[in-house]
Amino acid sequence: VSSFSVVSPCAKQVAPMVTVSVEEKVEIPPGIENLEAFRAWTHSDAFPERGRIDFIGGRIEVDMQAEAMYSHGGVKAAILRLLLNLVWDEDLGEIYTDRMRIASIPADLSTEPDVVYLSHRTLESDKVHLVPKANRDDEFVEIQGAVDMVAEIVSDSSVVKDNRRLPVAYFDAGVLEYWLIDARGDELLFQIHTRGQDAFQAVHVDSDGFQPSAVFSRNFQLLRSRNRRGHWQYELTTNA
């Protein structure tokens, strides 16, 4: 197996006080019974350097599956290519990926999204708190609070998590926009979600295929085509 989950006692079940080993690559130590304990583990030197390990509503989810090149890595690169340039050119804020962990106490959440965006306005507010690295006050290991945007790219092992559990958790965490991309099938799915009254709502796709992002004040479209070797390549475009 390449994914694994452990339900903690905060889900009203009793977990054995033993170390849990996942594929002999990840060891979940005893005592990880709530978000506070999980966050302390992620801040320690004992936390694994590979794999994605999330805490979602009392559930520890471990995904050791390798990142697919053309349905995941290539998509992420295309999104970052445009957004990094946009954020840099217009001095909008900061973009992070992969090992940048976000946490929310109200949402009972600690996770590492594929893409995270923080605007300067959010960074300068009390909506987020940057958690410093141990013995360093100039380096940070976690963003606690409500970030502006997160993007998740669906893999075979994250279908239910990305479509069901994470949207609920991100909404409860105060995230403003949730971008969901699924490039595994014949049809490319790219959908921007904005906050509704009780849950995220998909934004309207116009006749040209663009979707509005209030966070970036731009309209975006994700395109896919074959390169000269027949592999999928992606381009995130904007018409402002």
Integer average pLDDT: 91
Number of helices: 4
Number of strands: 18
Strand order, largest beta sheet? 1-5-4-8-7-11-10
Layout of strands and helices, then pairs:
Layout: E1 3-7, E2 20-22, E3 26-28, H1 35-42, E4 52-56, E5 59-63, H2 69-89, E6 93-97, E7 101-104, E8 109-111, E9 115-119, H3 120-123, E10 128-132, E11 140-145, E12 149-153, H4 159-172, E13 177-182, E14 189-195, E15 200-202, E16 211-213, E17 218-226, E18 232-238
Parallel strand pairs: 7-11, 12-13
Antiparallel strand pairs: 1-5, 2-3, 4-5, 4-8, 6-9, 7-8, 9-12, 10-11, 13-14, 14-15, 16-17, 17-18
Could you characterize what this model shows?
By secondary structure, this protein is an alpha+beta fold. It contains four helices and 18 strands. It has helices at residues 35-42, 69-89, 120-123, 159-172; strands at residues 3-7, 20-22, 26-28, 52-56, 59-63, 93-97, 101-104, 109-111, 115-119, 128-132, 140-145, 149-153, 177-182, 189-195, 200-202, 211-213, 218-226, 232-238. The strands form four sheets. The chain has a seven-stranded mixed beta sheet with strand order 1-5-4-8-7-11-10, sandwiched between helices. Strand 16 and strand 17 form a beta hairpin. The longest helix has 21 residues, at 69-89. The protein is globular.
